[in-house]
Each structure stands twice: as C-alpha cells, then as structure tokens.
Amino acid sequence: MDTLLKQLPKIELHLHIEGTLEPEMMFALSQKNNIPIPYKSVEEVRKAYDFHNLQSFLDLYYAGASVLVDREDFFSLTWAYFLKCKEDNVIHTEIFFDPQTHSSRGIDVGEVIEGITLAMKKAKEELGISSYLIACILRHLSEEEGIATLQSLLPFRNKIIAIGLDSSEVGNPPSKFKRLFELAKKEGFYIVAHAGEEGDSSYIWEALELGVNRIDHGVHCSEDSKLVQYLKDKQIPLTVCPLSNLKLKVFKTPKEHNLVWLLREGLCVGINSDDPSYFGGYMGENFEMIAKNFDLSIDEIVKLSINALNSSFLPQNEKKTLMSKIENFKNVTKS
Ligand code: ADE
Ligand code: ZN
Fold first, then answer.
1. Active-site residues (predicted)?
2. pLDDT of residue 331
3. What is the pLDDT of residue 303?
C-alpha cells in the first residue's frame, strides 16, 4: 500500500510556500541574513511546533518567515518544496504566498514573486511539474490594506492565477473582504478562501457568497446538513489538509477526521499539506495518515486525486493529459 500511495499521481491545491520552511533552512537563512531567531537548535525549533490552535501556529509561522529576504531565499524555499513534490509524485501544484507577510517588513513583493516563479519555471523544465501561484490576503488586517496589496500585485498579473484569503479566521469573516474580492474578480483572478477551518459553517456560506472557486479546508461544513447538500450538488471543491487539522486540534484524533465521510457523501474533496514543515508531513504523509486510519479502496484513493485535478485552475487540455496519468496508475494497480 505504501508504494502504491507513493506512486499515485497527486495534485496539491493548498500549500503555503512559507509553511515549507524547514528548520535547517530557517537556521541557514537566519545566519545569512543576520536575522535572529529565538532557537538554539533544529531540535528546539521542532519542539516548539506544539500547537493548540490556529493562532498559536500563526505566531510561529510569521516569526519563521522573517528570515526570508531576497529573491534567492524565495527561490531556494520553493525549489526545496518542488524536490519534495518529486518524491511524492505531485504532478501539479497551486502554491499560496502571503505578500503582506513580506511587504510589511519592507521586502519588495516583486522580489518574492521573482524568486518563487523562477523555481516554478525550473520545476516545469527539469522535473516536469506544473504549477500556479496564488496570492493570499491576510484577513487579520483591514480590507483597505488588502486592497492596496491587490493593487501592488497588478504589475505581476500574468504570474498570479488567483487571490486567496488566509490567517486568523474567527472574527475575520469573508464578508469583511467583499469589495476586495469584487475587484479581484474584475481583474480576472480566480478566487479562493480559507473558510470553516476553525470558523463555523457561516464562514463557508459567506465565502460562497463571495463567489469563490474553491473553499480551503471547509471541514466545519459537516455541522450543517444544508451546506453539505449544497457543496455536494454544486461540487464546490474543498481543499482539505488532514495533518494540519490534527496539529491545530480541529480534530482530536486521526479517526475523527471527516475527510473520508465527506468523500463518501459525494463532496469534491482532495488531500493537501497546508504547511508541511510545521504539521509533520508533505503530500505523501497526508495520504498515508488517511489510508492508515480509514479502510480506503484504490478507487477512493484515486478519486481524491481526480477531484483535485478537476478542481485545479489548469485548462481543459492539460487536465485531460494529467487525467490520463491518473487513469494509467489505476489500470496498473488493477492488473
Ligand atoms: N496561513 C498559513 N497556514 C494557514 C492556515 N492553516 N490557516 C490560515 N492561515 C494560514
Ligand atoms: Zn492554509
């Protein structure tokens, strides 16, 4: 089963590039850029990753990101992530970054985008992995600041496929960003939003009212049967992140996770890694955790990849090409 899971062609749609910063790289960049971090060793960093909720994680995540300064740093970070993708047979990925986490420290957003997109280009050429970039707006900040950030991204319009919404959810509902998302849609971006990670189902309804193309997380939908039916009927994608939900105590134990229930109810769910360096694993480990705790058939495992591919922003012809890779895998497992 483990080898089969490794070989499954995977699509990742919920990955914060800042959340792939491994402690070793954090130390190296802290020294290179002369930015102090409050840890003495890699072991001490890992020990600190003991979160009790989303905010306790975000505090460390933003502090960690402070070591990222120039385009080379963003290139190295993104390239290291692509090497993990190769190991896990991730064939397409849609990567989040948080422009405000860097612009607030005086870092030119153009440098950030340049570093990340250089690695994306190299990954396509050398590893055969396609990717898109999504800029997330920090919801704990004001809508005005978000709109100014959106405007600062317009010169890089052709490098960004979508605008997202992340950070501290409770108290910062999607409706706070109604104008911003109207503007983003007018500019031709797809839109996505974290909703129903810690927030209740009303956050998901509000994100749907904004017209999002996908809901990031969305696991709190299961407390609202009308919402579950709606998500199923409309096949609105949920980009679910099992290890993240466990680390942040959204679910207490692996068996309580509702991903497989949602899949069997017929919702369009996929598996993603969110912030793999902080949550204990990349795509491979997330699939393993679910397979180990639930009696999934090969067809169900493959369906998770098919759902993710259908939910991606790839054009139809590229979806078709990647679908044949997934179908091939299914045929090999059956022969
Ligand atoms: N930023 C990075 N990871 C996040 C998460 N899981 N939820 C909200 N904002 C985030
Ligand atoms: Zn996330």
1. 197
2. 87
3. 98
Q: Please provide the DSSP assignment of 17-85 as one string.
A: GGGG--HHHHHHHHHHTT---S-SSHHHHHHH---SSHHHHHHHHHHHHTT--SHHHHHHHHHHHHHHH
**Residue 248 alpha carbon, nearest atom of ligand 1:** 6
333 pLDDT above the threshold of 90: no
Query: What pTM did the predictor assign?
Result: 0.98
The Å distance, Cα 310 to ligand 2 centre, comes to 20
Which bound ligand lies closest to the C-alpha atom of 98?
1
Residues 34-67 pLDDT 10s:
999 999 999 999 999 999 999 999 999 999 999 9
Rounded to 10 degrees, what is the CA torsion of 296, 301, 304, 307?
Answer: -120
* CA-nearest residue, atom 7 of ligand 1: 167
Q: Which ligand is nearest to the CA of 168?
A: 1
Give residue 248 CA to ligand 1 midpoint distance, Å.
10
- CA-closest residue to ligand 1 atom 10: 167
Residues in the chain: 335
Among 194, 216, 286, name the best residue to mutate to test ligand 1's pocket (greatest count of ligand atoms within 8 A of Cβ).
194
CATH architecture of 2-334: Alpha-Beta Barrel (3.20)
Expressed in angstroms and rounded, the spacing between residue 332 Cα and the centre of ligand 2 is: 33
Specify the ligand 1 atom closest to the Cα of 197.
7
For residue 3, the model assigns a pLDDT of 83
Domain boundaries, the chain: 2-334
CB atoms under 10 Å from CB of 234, counted, come to: 11
The percentage of residues in the chain with a pLDDT greater than 90, rounded to a whole number, is: 97
Whether the per-residue pLDDT at 334 is higher than 80: the answer is: no
